[in-house]
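Team,

Forwarding the record for the chain on the shared tracking sheet. I've put the sequence and predicted structure together so nobody has to dig through attachments.
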Amino acid sequence: MQIVDDRPADVLHGGANGHDCCDVAAAAGVSPSTVSRTCKDSPSISRETKERVRRIMAQLGYEPNF
């Protein structure tokens, strides 16, 4: 059985810069959900964690595509 994925190619292959939220998460030592919540400025994520994740995002040139 073949699985068809209709997401845009940049979502499947890490966006224009080649990195995705899983790369950011691994580098920051957090889960991909934490990266997503940081991008949405969730109050459930500590200021320190948000700063770390955002620093890694900047270093990798990661920009969320939502």
